[in-house]
Structures are given as C-alpha cells and as structure tokens.
Amino acid sequence: MATMHELFDHTADLGLRITAPDLNALFAEAGECLFSAVVEDVASIRPTTAATIGLTGDDREFLLFDWLRELLMQFEMEHMLYGRFDVQVRPDGLTATAWGEPLDRGRHHLSHEVKAITYHELKVVETDGGWLAEVIVDI
C-alpha cells in the first residue's frame, strides 16, 4: 500500500484521511497532511530546521491526536512549518524528527486556519495491507 493523504470537508471542520503501509509512515504522512491543510504548498517548506519530538502513550488514536496537537502548537507558538517527518511509533509512544522552517509569508501562502485537533471521529485502524487514520480538525 502506498502512502497517501487527502483533505475532506466536514461541516465547519476539515477532515484528514491518511493511508500508509505501516504505523511509522502513517504518522509521518499525518504530519504532512496537517501542514497541507495549513499551507497551500507543502513543497514550499524548506527542511532547514529539525525538531525532535517524543510522546508517550499506548493508545494509537490518542497518540495520533497528541502528535498532531504538538505539531499544531509548534506552528501556533513558534510559527514553525514542517514538511518532512521521520516517525518511530513504539508500543509506549513515539519519537520523531520533523524538518521545516519558520513561516515566511512571502513564500508560504496559508490555506486554512487550523484552530484545533479534535477527538471527533478520530480513528487509527489496520486495513488489508496497511493502516488508515482519520482526524477532524477545527478550522
């Protein structure tokens, strides 16, 4: 199964649907999907700064929620955009490196104002040949 992500409309919210062959790729793709909702062109994000993120938790859905919430907080607080991710999911949490750069309004055109990650319809499930995640974000 190839990695993939897409955005879908969900009332006043926006849905993120991610597929990948394994959990590490699923979480990495979810990070890219989140930033594809924030900026019009994720490819415009240069990988000049690396951030290491460590999270604990044994529930996959809550871990995905915490992962995306941490990335969104870094955008809100530090104005950091990330476009490349290396994630190692463990039974007790995850360790990740995210590469990106500070928001440059001259090069980065914002798409949606993502206000929050929600628990609404949050899921991470194993499928035939891979994994599927769905997350609703408040915009």
UniProtKB/TrEMBL annotation:
Residues 6-139 form the Archease domain. Keywords: Calcium, Metal-binding, tRNA processing. InterPro entries: Archease, Archease_dom, Archease_dom_sf. PANTHER family: ARCHEASE, PROTEIN ARCHEASE. It comes from Limnoglobus roseus. It holds the Pfam family Archease. SUPFAM superfamilies: MTH1598-like (SSF69819). It comes from the Bacteria. Belongs to the archease family. One of its GO terms (molecular function) is metal ion binding. This is Archease. Coiled coil: none annotated. GO terms for biological process: tRNA processing.
